[in-house]
Amino acid sequence: MNGRSQVVIVGGGPGGYEAALVAAHLGASVTVIDSDGLGGAAVLTDCVPSKTLISTADYLGQLETSTHLGVHLVDHEGDEMVDASANLPEVNARVLALAAAQSEDIAGRLDEVGVRVIRGTAYVLNAGRVAADTEAGREEIEADVILLATGAAPRVMASAQPDGERILTWQQIYDLPSLPEHLIVVGSGVTGAELAQAYLGLGSRVTLVSSRDRVLPGEDADAATVIEEVFTRRGMTVLSRSRMQAVEVVRDEAGAASGVAVTLEDGRVIAGSHALLAVGSVPRTRGLGLEEAGVELSPSGHIVVDRVSRTSLRGVYAAGDCTGVLPLASVAAMQGRIAMAHALGDAVSPLNLHVVSANIFTDPEIATVGLSQKAVEAGGLAVRTTILPLARNPRAKMLGITDGFVKLFAESGSGTLLGGVVVAPRASELIFPLTIGVTLRLNVDQVASTFTVYPSLTGSIAEAARRLHATS
């Protein structure tokens, strides 16, 4: 395509705005149609807000454990302070302000590169035309390339309808006027585990309802075990193998909402002040004219794409949670960038999910990249594994870190680094050297012979690699 191709992007989340930046850089005329605010759920109601909330809870936790390091907080009269508390309205105000600021930064960047942003809803008329419905009416836009990046929304169930006050989705928690006295979190996947620990750290009593044998059932088993042990040690009640049947608001004699009742399938009823539903998400693909235009959807409603983000309709691409490929903002952004490079004739490599790094923002965090323990156990590869407890690391001792580990997977014979797991505070930062190693197919000897700072947590990565050195 030539330098003035017309690109229309539906959705301003990571997949959409990153694609817009690439398309503009490649000389296209770009229009973004967005209904919710630039940055999408990742910036406005999910990643940025939740991780800000989690960071606040982590900070409170550091204050509470500072005495183990010999640090004591005292008031102006010299008396020791034993309690630190979170003012939830202030916390939420900061959370939402940061999200809004990030959205404004994205808007400013798009404006700098000449991207036109339309606030409205979109309807795909055909492969070369999109309608934008705004307050001013309908505008039809010609397009050489269309990218669909509409995201996903929280899944709700008929037996557990959120009301935004007592029964909440993860998008509704930032309007709470006060800290929940007893929060019942339904769902022990990533979102449920992260927010359960966040509210526990902020001072709520928390019960986590998990339908599986352990929390974080889709993650590394060793890592999930550490997190569940931390949860229970800090006072969380974890109900394993307990499936929710219904959630209802409890009302007092005057009819005012006073709490919630979560009924489990085995008949137990758990009473709490609030319930947070974290039972998955559904793609936002209905009502956009996709099927009528010829875009194939999966039975779950996700847009079917290939590794360069093409849909079944020529000239139409898709990126992000609406595709169901992998629900990570980083993957959405990569899909969007790949789509624009492919559509506009730039050099491009297909999406490679084997080198994606991911992080769960519990405390400690769980970061992963490449080959997983499940894949190793499934067989088919000759793999050597080592796991090194973080508590042995001198820097960890200085920081008072007792939970966590580094786990590495290497190919037998060649020693090629195939994957890794880091469970540690700020594991999201520590996983980067392993991601480089997996992406560039370094062997463990190359990792082991690379200098690390002493003392540092990264020293455990090099030590784990040394343990995988082949001696015969």
Structural summary, described in words:
Residues 6-336 form the FAD/NAD(P)-binding domain. Its EC number is 1.6.5.2. NAD(+) binds at residues 187-194, 280. Belongs to the class-I pyridine nucleotide-disulfide oxidoreductase family. Pfam families: Pyr_redox_2 (PF07992), Pyr_redox_dim (PF02852). The model has no long low-confidence stretch (mean pLDDT 95). 31% of the residues lie in helices and 25% in strands. Helix 6 (221-233) links the parallel strand 11 (205-209) and strand 12. It has 472 residues and is an alpha/beta fold. The chain has three domains: 6-154 and 283-353, FAD/NAD(P)-binding domain (3-Layer(bba) Sandwich), CATH 3.50.50; 167-279, FAD/NAD(P)-binding domain; 364-467, Enolase-like, domain 1 (2-Layer Sandwich). The longest helix is centred in the N-terminal third of the chain and has 25 residues, at 88-112. It has helices spanning 14-25, 40-44, 47-65, 88-112, 190-202, 221-233, 290-293, 329-343, 373-378, 394-399, 427-439, 444-448, 459-467; strands at residues 6-10, 29-34, 116-119, 121-126, 129-134, 137-142, 145-148, 152-154, 167-169, 182-186, 205-209, 237-239, 244-251, 257-264, 269-272, 274-277, 281-283, 316-318, 357-360, 365-370, 383-389, 405-411, 417-424. The chain is globular. The N and C termini lie far apart (55 Å). The chain has a five-stranded parallel β-sheet, covered by helices on one side. It has a five-stranded parallel β-sheet with strand order 9-16-10-11-12, covered by helices on one side. Strands 19-20-23-22-21 form a five-stranded antiparallel β-sheet, sandwiched between helices.
